[in-house]
Amino acid sequence: MTASASPVFDWTGPLGLPRFEAITDADFAPAFETALAEHDAEIAAIADNPAAPDFDNTVVALELAGDRLSKVSSLFWNRAGTDTNDVIQALEREIAPRMSRHYSKIAMNKALFARVDTLYQKRVDLGLTAEQDRLLERIWKSFIKSGAGLDEAGQKRLAEVGETLAGLGARFGQNVLADERDYLLLLEDEAELAGLSEDLRAAMAAVAEDLGHEGKYAVTLSRSIIEPFLASSERRDLRETAFRAWTARGAKGGATDNAALISQIIALRTEKASLLGYESYAAYKLDDTMAKTPEAVEALLGDVWTRAVKSADSDRAELAKLIAEEGGNHEVAAWDWRHYAEKLKSRRFAFSETELKPYFPLSRMIEACFDVANRLFGLTMTERKDIRGPHKDARVFEVKGRDGALIATFIADYFARPSKRSGAWMSGMRSQHKLAMPDGSVGEKPIITNVMNFSKPAAGQEALLSLNDARTLFHEFGHALHGMLSDVTYPSLSGTSVSRDFVELPSQLYEHWLTVPEILEKHARHYKTGEPIPRALLDKVLAAQTFNAGFNAVEFTASALVDMAWHTAGQKPDPATFEAETLKKLGLPEAIVMRHASPHFLHVFSGDGYSAGYYSYMWSEVLDADAFAAFEETGDPFNAEMAEKLRRHVYSAGGSRDPAELYQAFRGRMPDATAMLAKRGLA
Questions:
Q1: Under a CB-based contact definition with an 8 Å cutoff, are residues 253 and 106 in contact?
Q2: At what angle do helices 294-325 and 549-566 cross, to 10 degrees?
Q3: CA distance 314 to 270
Q4: Is residue 578 a contact partner of residue 567, using CB atoms and an 8 Å limit?
Q5: Which distant-in-sequence residues (6+ apart) come within 8 Å of 318 by Cβ?
Q6: Closest CA to 393 of 446, 496, 477, 463
Q7: Could you confirm whether 476 is annotated as catalytic?
Q8: Which element (helix H / strand E) includes 434?
Q9: Which residues pair with 382 in a beta bridge?
Q10: Span 3-178: which CATH code?
Q11: Which residues on neighbouring strands pair with residue 406, listed in sequence order?
Q12: Distance between CA 50 and CA 511 in Å, rounded?
């Protein structure tokens, strides 16, 4: 078989999917070779076109180029994230810097940039639509920010920096994965299991059995196990052991230690910003966002930080009283907070996560996700059990609109496994667009994936979610809807192709519908009896939503502020010292740690995505709280008129307009933080 006939490129399966079962690890390397060479040729043809540049022969041509490279990239990075192995990791280390080099070469193609620049300089005379104008501006800016305006020496150095950063990011992520994968705390006697719920025990037993330790119980560093273990285990010594391992990821010394990588990444990012004429890397990253400047970010985070620390201090005092009541003679330590907070919540609201989880089986929460999408946007999700996904555990759904027409394909991969990186995410295997394709077809339907890391139950048992797990499910499905509902002409503006501090709006907003009473009443049902969640328990759940608000806000905001500190101007000592000094200046409470310490801060250091951008979750939270308030003001969380505005101006608009314009078109005004602070219990 020739590389050009590779199954990687054969997307002729049902729903336009690749035939996943036919793709082997060995197919990726030759497919990349073919796709990269093909893309090089396409770029050369555009750059060297003897015809004068116009929108079609330059901008549209760029949009259509690289189809095969997009295919192999989407499949490869899905496998690297969800089912990696030594072969895939070796290719990842090779291909990450190579892809960076490839795109740097395109960005620095003088003939190509000259064509784009010619169009940009006379764009007011081209009769462009608003979407076309937005696309041209974004392409031009991407060239500028990639070094098109630099001299030859500057371009060469920028390309070297980008390539090196790509390789360092891949190594950073692999180190964290290795630390997560290699840690195992095995428990077996009843004393070691004190406080653990039956469903958590079952999940731990299933993991242990998968790892060859039948009859024992495994504590791993997957959030779906470590967090409930820290919340429920009565064994303080075991909580401390597990917590220290969890927070030491990427900082254990030896081959997987990330300290040196962080120093290199920060130095290179600073150099990149300087080459491009920015005061700092944060200024470079924020240039095309809603926030615009580091100062605007720090103002938002600083206000929340002050309120959060005050709230957390009050909560710590209550936890200390509880410890004393139980006869403890120790301060509240970081490995104690979740445990005693869970007890305090149980006392205050007379329920616990253990009591709650039976009403949140994964199957019903998936139904709830889909139900909300149907009520808001008229979508119908139908599972295609006859279609193999990218992994045997992945599920494939066809997505239809109100008129019964197919609008997207959705792939969901819900369960943790040692070969999958931690966390939860959405990605697009194929973006929606309406362009005429070389084969004569017009447009493409999106293929969207959701990846989770819920604990896989034993065979024949139901996966039970915590309320936070259910929120994660809704969050990532909100991202998925942003991709599936996309209705734009150009793939570069499709779905989640928006500024980083706007991209979390559709996902965080969607979380609100999980706790709409009628959704909980309908879908939160006991996994054994089918009985709905008792109204009294539901009322307690809703009342408890702001419980532990200070802790949650401190955890997050500390990470966001450290991220900004890394990427603003000034000298950076070694990573551990810099992080410690930054947190000391902030006044981080002793009993709370950052949600993501720098050595395992994947958002920021395993790639460029959320670097100087972790704040965007909170920035988007201001937007999402204000946006949901628009529905609340109508008295109907499914108000049809408001839902249509939301679909048109947010979920379907992609990056076709400036995000501030899109938000104002939906809401009628810019947002303020009032609703967010109230939602968090920090008002």
A1: no
A2: 140
A3: 39
A4: no
A5: 344
A6: 463
A7: yes
A8: strand 433-436
A9: 398
A10: 1.10.1370.40
A11: 400
A12: 52
Instruction: List the structure tokens of 617.
Output: 């979750």
Q: Tokens at residue 368, please?
A: 């709830």
pTM equals: 0.81
Q: What is the pairing mode between strands 447-454 and 406-415? A: parallel
The sign of the CA dihedral 517, 522, 527, 533 is: positive
Neighbours of 94 (CB within 10 A): 14
Q: What size, in residues, is the chain?
A: 683
Name the β-bridge partners of 448. Answer: 410, 428
Smallest Cα–Cα separation from 167: which of 613, 606, 611?
606
Whole-angstrom distance, CA of residue 356 vs CA of residue 533: 8
Alpha-carbon Rg for the chain in angstroms: 25
Q: What is the pLDDT of residue 70?
A: 97
User: Per-10-residue mean pLDDT for the chain, 683 residues long?
Assistant: 80 96 97 97 98 98 97 97 96 93 92 97 96 96 91 93 94 95 95 95 94 96 93 97 97 96 96 95 90 90 92 96 95 97 90 87 98 98 97 97 97 95 94 92 96 92 93 97 98 94 93 94 95 89 88 96 92 91 96 96 92 91 92 97 98 94 93 86 85
Q: Is 568 helix (H, G, I), strand (E, B) or coil?
A: coil
Neighbours of 197 (CB within 10 A): 19
State the catalytic residue, choosing from 342, 476, 504, 621. Answer: 476
Report the C-alpha gap between 566 and 324 in whole angstroms: 39
For 145-152, which contacts have Cβ atoms below 8 Å and span 24 or more sequence positions?
Answer: 145/276, 145/284, 145/287, 146/103, 146/104, 146/107, 146/108, 147/104, 147/107, 147/108, 147/275, 147/276, 148/107, 148/108, 148/110, 148/113, 148/117, 150/108, 150/275, 150/276
Placement of tokens 């490279």 in the chain: 69
Of 82, 128, 120, 80, nearest to 415 by C-alpha is 82
Token reading at 28? 């990726």
Q: Are 184 and 212 in contact (CB under 8 A)?
A: no
Q: CA-CA distances (angstroms) from residue 475 to 185, 481, 509, 603, 619?
A: 30, 10, 8, 16, 15
Among 64, 15, 137, 9, which Cα is nearest to 435's? Answer: 64
* Contact criterion met (CB below 8 Å) for 160 and 154: no
**Residue spans in the chain of domains classed CATH 1.10.1370.40:** 3-178
**In the numeric block, which tokens belong to residue 222?**
């997957």
Query: Which of 401, 393, 388 shows the shortest CA–CA distance to 450?
Result: 393
| Residue keyed to tokens 């709370």 | 592
As given in the structure block, the two tokens for residue 276 are 């491009």
Instruction: Provide the mean pLDDT of the chain.
Output: 94
Tell me how far the alpha carbon of residue 567 is from its chain's centroid: 20
